[in-house]
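Our preliminary data section would be incomplete without showing what the modeling component actually yields. Below, a chain of 179 amino acids is followed by its predicted structure, encoded as tokens that our downstream tools consume directly.
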Amino acid sequence: MSPNAPETGDAVTTPLNIAVLTVSDSRSAAEDRSGDALVQRLEAAGHQLAERDLQPDDIYALRAVVSRWIADPRIDAILTTGGTGITGRDGTPEAVSVLLDKTIDGFGELFRALSYEEIGTSSLQSRALSGVANGTYVFVLPGSTGACRTAWDQLIRAQLDDRTMPCNLTMLMPRLKEI
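Predicted structure:
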């Protein structure tokens, strides 16, 4: 955890509406441990689950769901889990990256650095990414529960907490649609 981030047990002062999308050809909603972990963590931090969905590894179906959420003014952030590997069916980064207005390159870089500490060189296979689209933050995470825990606990939670200093993503939200 960042030394400038609030303690884990403290609820945020600006709760966000966050949507969670699990991408999997093999999991059902009942078996979605990664999605469950993200929902539990975002709610424990004081945020609200806006919507939740599970879709197969289909670029166009993923784009449709994420596009709808990006266009929904009630949704502040989107977390996707799954489909970030390098196999033929892994297409979440391709589905989402074209929808982003801006990328947050540091997210993927930091995620892989943190993952390296946990899983070694296997971390190079992750294509985790983040960005902003229509004023909505989008985080594309690997499908493993451990990766979701790492991303939320060590990066996303603090950045979606308006008390994290010297800066955080929440404080930038009013300015995301500036021209």
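The longest helix spans residues 105-119. The chain is about 35% helix and 20% strand. Preliminary results of this kind motivate Aim 1 of the renewal.
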